[in-house]
Amino acid sequence: MRRRLLISLLLLAASALALRAQDIPDYAQYDQAVADSLDAEAARFAPLDSLLTQFYGALLYEENSAKNAEFDALIASCRDSLTRQHVALAVFDHYRYSRVMGEEAVAVHIFDEWIATDKVQLRSEFERFEAERFALENRKTLLGMPAPQVTLRTPCGGRRTIPPSDRAAVLFFYSPGCAKCRLETHALPAVLAEVDFPLDFYAINVDKDRRDFRAFRKALKTTNKNVKMIHLWDPKDESALLLDYGVFSTPKVFVVWEGEILGRRLEMDSLQEIIRYINLLYGQEKED
Which of 30, 41, 135, 214 is the most buried (most CB within 10 A)? Predict the structure, then answer.
């Protein structure tokens, strides 16, 4: 009932804005004035944005497919191009930056359905570039999707295809020169010490310097017998590693369970929570 009321209010607000659309310039034609236009747009759409915020909350526990359907219907109902643009991009940005893991799939859907098809025009070429990059980075590794398999090099030059389809795995993408990567290297041993199940931990260097690779391997270790630490890299760019996992910056952490993406782009505290969750599942399976 509350969701239906919010939809009705959103449609009324969008309709009211449509009546005034002829008084608002088409921002897409004025790339140089985009920054100034955004302030005017924010004031104009403030009531609609308030309703959208409530709508996000009402849909919080719905499946992504239900969210996609609701927002497709809402965007399609906007009578003028500017209101449609604002609603579509507001929804895209909300789910693009969502703190709820997995909701970025809604943003990818909005991109595919409305932005990539040019049903909604973006305000500038830079904004389009950013939207395209987001979709490219995230499309192949959404929650529940099969983890892309890539073949990488071991420190000795051998080949290894990861991740396995029959074991739990963590993929830790790093760059030796990355400050946050070095910080997470210090935090990882404590996190991995909690693992009570067989786990393959793949530390994947995305850079090319062999000396830095050797030094990082010495720094990243674990004493937990349940964790198999495996160091890999791709010094000759023989794989589609960066595109398959969207690693355009580091660090990036993924959890794979029996070949399926269980966690993505995790901070250390989130990785720790997933490990504790799998510990519980593994303990129950052992008891059974």
Answer: 135
φ/ψ (deg, to 5) at 196: -110, 15
Instruction: Convert the pLDDT of each residue in 162-183 to its tens digit.
Output: 998 888 999 999 999 999 999 9
Residue 279 · residue 195 · CB < 8 Å: yes
Task: Give the integer Cα–Cα distance in Å for 21 and 23.
Answer: 5
Reported pTM: 0.76
- Contact (CB, 8 A) for 31 and 125: yes
Pick the CATH number of 150-287 from 3.40.50.300, 3.40.30.10, 2.60.40.10, 3.40.470.10: 3.40.30.10
Composition of the chain by helix, strand, coil, percent to 5 = 55, 15, 30
pLDDT reading at 25 higher than 80: no
Q: For the chain, how far is it from start to end, CA to CA, in angstroms?
A: 43
